[in-house]
Amino acid sequence: MFMTRRELDAARISDPGLRAAYRHCRRLNARHGRTYFLATRLLPVHRRPAVHALYGFARWADDIVDDPACARTPEARDRQLARLEGELASGLRTGRSSEPVVRAVADTARTYAIPHEHFADFMASMRDDLTVTDYATYEDLRSYMHGSAAVIGLQMMPVLGTVVPQEVAAPHAAALGIAFQLTNFLRDVGEDLDRGRVYLPADLLAAHGADRALLEWSRATGKPDRRIRAALEAAADLTRSVYRQARPGIDMLDPRARPCIRTAYTLYGGILDAIADDDYAVVQRRAVVPRRRRAAVALGGAARILTARLRPRPLRSPEHPLTAAPAHGSSSNGSQGYGS
């Protein structure tokens, strides 16, 4: 509770209802996103509420589509997504909402001048998940991931701050979002099969003699297959190539944001290592990064924070200001960085 209060005070969020909305988003982040929540703790405190709001909204929409505990029919899920979409559009337009998550994310969008089309693209991909159960090609999957993953990186960029024009950093931010999601797809192959979905592109599977039916057989019987393993290894190689595209963008961020994103980059990359260490058995079980490994990476991130704080601050310029937390309810420059 103290940390939550400190974060909200640092972000200059004073309205009691808005503070409650941000606290709700933080709880969603802590409950559902262990890796991401751990990395977020490395951000300067005044930036954390905005990240919790963005993640909380994405988590809420994803739960409407995927939560196995809910017995909603596809039609009911579609209606709930439509209600959320309408609430979001109204919240982004007016800055008000009775839904805590929407209120927090609308405040974040206004404070950091996040383009509204990123949220529209995200909701379009969530709708795809109601009807699309597999993807013929990697390009088809990339189109889906623009809304489900790339725009998350683009939403985050104004919150984190950049030391270059945003259009220079944007392709790397989008790539990092895609790399994280490809990692999740690999980790969750078995669970996605249980939901009736296959995110591994059919052309990648076919290149190694595998297909959806073979994946379903392996999941049902618990038996591995060398063709599946080869396809999964190829998918991991593809994912690592996207991480390489994303990596230069970390040094384009405000120095005080880099430890957080570098830690997330390393932790998610560690999931790929865990999958390989488990011989690509993700059809049968989820690969897990050991807690000791996560703690060691987080400790390294904390050390980088200390180093960043001891460095001289970069000179401010009109194009890439590095300023303190913006006042909530007012628009801020999209490339704003961190204060002390």
TrEMBL record:
This protein's record includes keyword Transferase: yes
Q: Which GO terms describe its biological process?
A: carotenoid biosynthetic process
Q: Which SUPFAM superfamilies match?
A: Terpenoid synthases
What keywords would UniProt list here?
Carotenoid biosynthesis, Transferase
- Needed cofactors: ATP
Xref: InterPro entries: Isoprenoid_synthase_dom_sf (IPR008949), Squ/phyt_synthse (IPR002060), Squalene/phytoene_synthase_CS (IPR019845), Trans_IPPS_bact-type (IPR044843), Trans_IPPS_HH (IPR033904)
Query: GO molecular function terms here?
Result: geranylgeranyl diphosphate synthase activity; squalene synthase [NAD(P)H] activity
The Low complexity compositionally biased stretches are 329-340
In this chain, the stretch annotated as Disordered covers 310-340
Pathway connected to this protein: Carotenoid biosynthesis; phytoene biosynthesis
Superkingdom, taxonomy of origin: Bacteria
TM ranges: none
Name the family: Belongs to the phytoene/squalene synthase family.
The protein depicted here goes by the name Phytoene synthase
Origin organism lineage: Bacteria, Bacillati, Actinomycetota, Actinomycetes, Kitasatosporales
